[in-house]
Amino acid sequence: MVQDITGGTKRAALIEKAAEEVQGRSLWQDARRRLFANKMAVASMIVLGIIALMAIFADVLSPHAYDEVYWDYIGVGPMLENSHWFGTDANGRDLFIRTLYGARVSLMVGIVTTMVALVIGVAYGAVAGYFGGRIDTIMMRIVDVLYSMPLMFFIIILVVVFGRHIVLVFIAIGCVEWLTMARIVRGQTMSVKRKEFIEAARASGVSTPNIIRRHIIPNVIGPVIVFVTLMVPVVILVESFLSFLGLGVQEPMTSWGVLISEGAAQMENAPHMLIFPAVFLAVTLFCFNFIGDGLRDALDPKDR
Amino acid sequence: MPKELLRVEGLKVHFPIRTGGILIGQYTPLKAVDGVSFTLNEGETLGIVGESGCGKSTLGRAVLQLIKPTDGKVVFMGSELTGVGAEVIRQKRADMQIVFQDPLASLNPRMTVGDIIGEPLTVFFPKMKAEERKAKVRALMAKVGLLPQMINRYPHEFSGGQCQRIGIARAMILNPKLVICDEPVSALDVSIQAQIVNLLMDLQKEFGLSLLFISHDLSVVRHVSHRVMVLYLGKVMEIAERDAIYEAPLHPYTQALISAVPVPDPDIEKNKQRIVLGGDLPSPMKPPSGCVFRTRCPKASDICAGQVPVLEEKMPGHRVACHHWGIPDAAAVPTVAHH
Amino acid sequence: MTAVLEVRDLKVRFATPDGEVSAVNGVSFDVNESECVGIVGESGSGKSQLFMSVMGLLAKNGRTLGSAKYRGTELVGMPVKSLNKIRGDKIAMIFQDSMTGLTPHLRIGKQMTEVLVQHKGMGEAAAVKRALEMLNLVRIPEAARRLAQYPHELSGGMRQRIMIAMALLCEPELLIADEPTTALDVTVQAQILDLMADLKRVTKAAIVLITHDLGTVAGLCDKVQVMYGGRFMETGSVQEIFYQPAHPYTAGLLASMPRLTERRREKLYAIPGQPPNLQRLPKACPFQERCDYVHERCVDELPLLRDVTPGHAKACHLLSLANPVSDPKAPSLKVADEARSA
User: Fold this and answer.
1) How sure is the predictor about C339, in pLDDT bands with cuts at 50, 70 and 90?
2) Which bin fits B111, alpha (ψ -120 to 50), beta or left (φ > 0)?
3) Chain A contact for C274, CB < 8 A?
4) Which chain B residues are closer than 8 Å to A5 by Cβ?
């Protein structure tokens, strides 16, 4: 008979009580607990949630359409009359609804592009990192070459060839962002693959795709999640910059970048055109950064 | 007549280390394992001892083909493992398993204990239903001394000794014939080591396991092994029945090793005339010529530098690789004539 | 015998996010001149933290209660400047990991002469001479060459010897060695143990050897103190502890160790249970959950150290291991439910 760890009836009662078949406390649950204890992160999530809801229910919140021109109210400041809470732009379009529609575009670009970069980057990086050697060298050299390509140049070529279209923005930015993601995942994979539980999985006969899927990826995803939340604001900024330059979304659709561009042109006589979209952009960027910081602290491996 | 389970012949594992060259790399081989041969029978435990750099961990992994051997042959259950395809080896993994040194690091922190122990079943019995798998896992958990109710917990919620039990359960779930134990108790507290040693020996008795017990702790190895092999810088110095190695070691290195181990007995320990080896361990990239042990050996002479001593049977069932083998000085080795 | 170190009711507590954790729970002992005391314990015993606290090396979230006097001078709460005059000079410590004990970017020679210049006010030349003397004392070959080398260029065994040499530079009165040979190979360990045995004869320093390895203790120590869960379980001479253990934990440890010198292959005795979780220590005797002879009394009353024979003490309610009944005369402390053991 194998010696029982409890070794004695006196202790058995104590141990039994402590160990009903409960759900274990996973590391994710620990991290979530820590995240929600971080006040800045929680506040940021709430603010971000509000902005997102406002963007989704924009049509409910404002009686105007985003491209409707009000000839009587060209370039006016914020007023309660006619429900122009943020005022109108130089073409007489309501700024409030345009800001919210801009939010839709910016947030969508930010999130969708990042998600695409995430999927491609994780797959690419995990494969390169796990196999190492020649495969890794070749894959990473490709990344290095693509990395050295200037983003602006690439986008200008795309715009010249395909014309201005929102999807181009997704593609262009996505093509650049996945590179950094791949590098991070590769680095994380290389440190995880040395761990003994990977060797244990190989000794148990687990196939390589399953090792990458079940053992590597769940253990590298921590830093990746942090990077994702910090990448979204960067993407939004890049999109804003492109739109500012006139390379982004097509009229009459708008984004924060376009609004800021137009607002900057009218800065002296209609400052409200610049202020409102700029504030929204800044607040959104702050929120993502605070959430990213919160996630980094929550997933800190030192606590493991 | 005990049946032979594992036969290793002339196993070599050399790692090419880059030591120079600008465009084209210059490589020097790090000879981790340099020509090791031994056999292991069913139900037997072979203890493999040696200090750092002797190659014992690499040897264990090379037998299991987790590291590809540079040369030599490994024959397991009658079929060759060296020089065959990865798929053939993968099929054999159900019969040969390994328990690692660091109990917590050998478990995926993101998987539950139940999933960790049950994973080998998903590999070899993919059609098995989840309920049946869980039942098997629970039964095995009870057998290794874990409470089955803990099946949904995560590794970090367990102590070191319990983690090692999880690792042992994972190794045992497919009912292997051979289990390589790579320093299985070295990272555990002294009071827990005995629990795990007892567990391994019970499992061996119940399932007829063969164990390759790799350790630097000579006292534990004495307790668990039937035969013992002593390695130094990737080569076998001595291999014999357990009591013969401990009570009449013939190789100067074995004698020094045994004499060096501090024994928890003040009278013996305070009066011991330890054999203290001079010098440091040579680098496995530049092993000494002839006998690799000669730079530290108290009995070394000219012949040791010129000729590599062959591992030969000098006394019945007792093989030594030394030009100056012989019975040790009683005062130096506390195990001699002690019962 | 005058005491070099007198520790009275020392406690070490750490503030953690989950509340205050007690690493050391009230220990008292003396270390006399030329004596070698072994502190034996496993993880969670508090043996390392005990001396980190005496040396003022606790982490920021740790605090010390009680008293630790070096030749009458109170060390607990001493300001760092005064502590620095004693540390390295009168009391020296060597650690398990020689790579962390030595500064990686300074040459050995510089690290050694620095200590001498700082504490003894020696000139460079005199300091170098003394450093060479020490390296020879610890049997480092080619001592002069080593002075110019960096720690990473040397083997583990050599680095450990250099740590010992550095510790002995100022002729300390007390040398604290925390697991000095645990990270070393057996044959290298033999070299270091041999060296320490010789040094013991040559210097008059008192030595405290903190370790979990009973073999090392058997060879070097005169007195032994066995720790578990932050308290002493048994103290006595090395002969008494190894040949007449009076506490179930000590006896259990000795019985559970496979012996190099024995032929048997039956089951080892194994102390049941797990090492203590410092955040959930039992309220009275810390060993109760693993003890084969536990009584009702052990759960509520903390057994205090009492003499078995003069100089040999145990903290246990049992009359003796041969007669494991509760001894009505055993002094103990009733412990309330919520209060941490005082």
Assistant:
1) very low
2) beta
3) yes
4) 145-146, 161-162, 195
Global ipTM: 0.88
Instruction: Give the tens place of pLDDT for each residue, A79-107.
Output: 777 778 888 888 888 888 889 988 988 88
Closest CA to C47 of C87, C20, C12: C12
- Using the structure block, give the residue that is written with the tokens 């759900």: A23
Nearest CA to B42 among B86, B6, B80?
B6
Cα–Cα distances in angstroms (integers) from residue C328 to residues C13, C231, C298, C301, C318, in the given order:
32, 22, 12, 12, 9
Q: In B, residues 260-319, which contact C (CB 8 Å cutoff)? A: 260-266, 268-270, 272, 274-277, 280-281, 296
Report the percentage of chain B scoring pLDDT > 90.
68
- H or E, element range at A278: helix A272-298
Q: Which tokens in the block code for residue C124?
A: 């460079």
Q: What is the pTM of this model?
A: 0.86
In this structure, are residues C111 and C142 in contact, taking their beta carbons and an 8 Å threshold?
Answer: no
Distance between CA atoms of residues B32 and A96, nearest Å? 71
Looking at residue B268, its amino acid is: I
In this complex, is the C-beta atom of B298 within 8 Å of any C-beta atom belonging to chain A? Answer: no
Which residue, among A270, A242, A268, A271, has the nearest Cα to A256 in the 3D structure? A242
pLDDT of residue B277: 84
Tell me, what's the pLDDT at A70? 82
Q: What per-residue confidence (pLDDT) applies to A93?
A: 86
Residue B178: name the closest of B107, B94, B87 by CA.
B94
Between A153-162, B56-65, B172-181, C9-18, the lowest mean confidence (pLDDT) is in: A153-162
Q: What is the dihedral of CA B154, B156, B162, B163, to 10 degrees?
A: 90
CB B66 within 8 A of CB B4: no
